[in-house]
């Protein structure tokens, strides 16, 4: 009684793209540039799995808006787990906040066409090259 309730509003992006990579500094700029050129400009998170070629640094310099999370090399070596991570683990690995209606996991060399004609979740069936999509 008499207690006030406060409601916090978060901005929810339709899709956040998470890319897992290791030693792909030569390939990633093309992939990220393609994502940044899309009309909806989805937020991009790079999960670097222990690169030794300067991938995180080069991506941060070329694309300062891309959030970079670094996995220790020891953890990365335990199976290159990026493409096989369950949705909940991907969300924990990504820097905060990763708030979205859907989370798209992309290979570091995969090009994404960036739209889902019937809304989030319709892409994998209609566009297999998009890859797997996890609903939030």
From TrEMBL:
Domain Glycosyltransferase 2-like: residue ranges: 16-75
InterPro entries the record matches: Glyco_trans_2-like, Nucleotide-diphossugar_trans
SUPFAM superfamilies: Nucleotide-diphospho-sugar transferases (SSF53448)
UniProt feature, compositional bias: Basic and acidic residues: 126-136
Chain spans, region Disordered: 115-136
Name of the protein: Glycosyltransferase 2-like domain-containing protein
């Amino acid at each position: 009684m008499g207690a006030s309730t406060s409601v916090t509003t978060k901005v929810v992006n339709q899709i956040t793209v998470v890319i897992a990579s290791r030693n792909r500094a030569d390939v990633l700029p093309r992939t990220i540039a393609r994502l940044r050129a899309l009309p909806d400009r989805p937020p991009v998170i790079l999960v670097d799995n222990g690169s030794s070629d300067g991938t995180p640094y080069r991506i941060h310099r070329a694309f300062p808006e891309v959030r970079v999370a670094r996995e220790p090399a020891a953890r990365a070596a335990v199976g290159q787990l990026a493409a096989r991570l369950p949705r909940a683990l991907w969300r924990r690995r990504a820097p905060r906040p990763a708030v979205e209606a859907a989370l798209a996991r992309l290979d570091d060399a995969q090009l994404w066409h960036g739209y889902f004609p019937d809304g989030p979740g319709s892409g994998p069936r209609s566009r297999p090259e998009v890859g797997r999509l996890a609903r939030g």
